[in-house]
Amino acid sequence: MDSKLLRGTFILTIGTYISRILGMIYVFPFVALVGLQGSALFAYGYGQYTIFLSIATMGFPMAVSKFVAKYNEIGDYHTSRRMFKSGLLVMGIAGFVAFLVLFYLAPYIAPKVLGGRDEHGNTIEDVTMVIRMVSVALIAVPVMSLIRGFFQGNQSMGPTAVSQVVEQLVRVVFLLSATYIVIEMVDGEMATAVGFATFAAFVGALGGLVVLLIYLKMRKPYFDELLEKSKPQTEMTTKDMYKELLSYAGPFVFVGLAIPLYTYVDVFTFNNAMINTGFLKVTAEEIFGLITFSIPKLVMIPVSLATAFGLTLIPTITSSFTSGNLPLLRRQIDQTFQIIVLLVLPAVVGLAVLAGPAYATFYPTEGLGGEYGGFFLGWFAPVAILFSFFTVTAAILQGINKQKLAVISLVIGLLIKLMTNAPLIYVFEGLGSILATALGFTVSIAYSFWMIAKHTKYSFSLFLRRSVLMSLFALLMALSILSIEYILSFVISYESGKVQSVTILLIGVLIGAGIYLYLAYKSHLLAKLLGARFAFLNRKKKQKAVQ
């Protein structure tokens, strides 16, 4: 069983990463086609969709996964199947209701998003149309997500992994094809192209849903066989069943919404604050597109990779807490925190130092992108380490059965973001939004650290000492990259074109990564934190010393 579970987790992880990579790389050609104003329009629509999807699903898919796994474990397959069928109906109704609400609210949301102004840039009609186009996806996605949860509850990760990849692939192909056809082939409006780009969420969901239905048909004999061998059905009313389900669902829906909710604050406050500061509406929109759409896609690359590495330790943390082995639990928490710093810190420092060539490599540099892109990326990059720690600390709090504290942590941070966003934008303009996000996450993380220390008796001393050491390595890496950039500036400039920016970026990344990894290896951090994969390097060194 352990081997099967490990294999399933690996398959799901690979599928998730392929899906995420596809979800990142489409942004670069998309921004080249529609520009920053089109990116802002896309963000307006997708921001609403993300929130309404979370409301519609209410954390049900992951909760159903946990529910099914629990009752399968005790051999009550009747209750598992009953929950699955009931959940499909609930998700179908919830998704359709969410679609209707968002579709009809679109004309009222649009003016709020645009700061109450309709001159120049995107219009109220444009935003309304895009929100309505993306709202259609709410009909299919909740049902698809619940089927994935059912498969995962049955320890069958393949269907979820394959459907994720197919969904994202279909979505990206449709998105880029439709955008290219509208912009380049039929000389259509940018707003029309963005509308079809958001509608791609529905098309992708249909692709993923078809894959899952095929798997359900193929696995039906197996599930029916389990049903025949089932123990007598647990005596649970539908009310009791959903009461238990909702107890699982709450934390999933809130913590998973962290970054979308922060973006949602910007959706409703950013343009108005920027316009009141003195910016033209069209300029405010383009900067909004930079900060909420283009730049986060680059920043989230190190976040998604590193947090996944840290989160692989969370099941063992849960197990240690459940068994009451607090010394082991504290060591695992320590290792998780240190791995996050080890992997994310050099990535964000490198991205901040190489912000100019990194932005110029992936995005067009005409207009405001060239003027502000590197600047905002340099400031946004360090926020990635806050994203990582928020995700991991929330998972640890859930692992030690303190889900409510994870929700409180999120709410505190969101309130900070909400209260400081407009004032900081008035003072620092577009940078104020990034600073408000950083402040909100910092307060959330500080609260989570406090709660983890309180409930596990965890000491931060070793983590802080090693963090100082890794910060020193990152500083030396940054100084090396800056020196190389300075030397290269006599020969080439990243502002001269894509080839030059790619060259500078690659040289900087290779030298920076090489220096950081060498220092981490020589200090034995790699072996201590990443285990046996690097232990052989230290053994060779010891053998030479003996000889």
Write structural notes for this entry.
The protein has 22 helices and no strands. It is mostly helical and 547 residues long. The protein folds into 2 domains: 1-248, no CATH class; 257-470, no CATH class. The radius of gyration is 24 Å and the shape is globular. The protein starts with a helix and ends with a helix.
**Helix and strand sequence:** HHHHHHHHHHHHHHHHHHHHHH
Low-confidence stretches: 532-547
| Basic shape | globular
Structural class: mainly alpha
Overall pLDDT level? 85
Radius of gyration: 24 Å
- β-strand amount: under 5%
| Helix percent band | over 70%
Total number of helices: 22
Number of domains: 2
Beginning-to-end CA distance, first to last residue: 45 Å
Counted beta strands: 0
Give a short account of the largest sheet.
none
Subcellular location: Cell membrane
Membrane topology: Multi-pass membrane protein
InterPro entries: PG_synth_SpoVB, Poly_Biosynth_Transport, Polysacc_synth
Transmembrane segments: 49-68, 88-109, 129-147, 168-186, 192-216, 245-265, 298-318, 339-360, 372-398, 405-428, 434-452, 472-493, 499-519
Any descriptors?
547 residues, 2 domains, 22 helices, globular
Overview in brief:
The chain has helices at residues 2-25, 27-57, 60-73, 77-113, 124-135, 141-153, 158-185, 190-228, 238-256, 258-277, 281-311, 314-323, 326-353, 355-362, 368-380, 383-399, 403-428, 430-456, 461-488, 498-522, 525-530, 532-546. The protein is mostly helical and 547 residues long.
List the helices and strands and how they pair.
Blueprint: H1 2-25, H2 27-57, H3 60-73, H4 77-113, H5 124-135, H6 141-153, H7 158-185, H8 190-228, H9 238-256, H10 258-277, H11 281-311, H12 314-323, H13 326-353, H14 355-362, H15 368-380, H16 383-399, H17 403-428, H18 430-456, H19 461-488, H20 498-522, H21 525-530, H22 532-546
Helix pairs in contact: 1-7, 1-11, 2-4, 2-5, 2-7, 2-8, 2-10, 2-11, 3-4, 3-6, 3-9, 4-5, 4-6, 5-8, 6-7, 6-8, 7-8, 9-17, 10-11, 10-17, 11-13, 11-15, 11-16, 12-13, 12-16, 13-16, 13-19, 14-15, 14-20, 16-17, 16-18, 17-18, 19-20
Organism: Litchfieldia luteola
Transmembrane segments: 49-68, 88-109, 129-147, 168-186, 192-216, 245-265, 298-318, 339-360, 372-398, 405-428, 434-452, 472-493, 499-519
Protein name: Polysaccharide biosynthesis protein
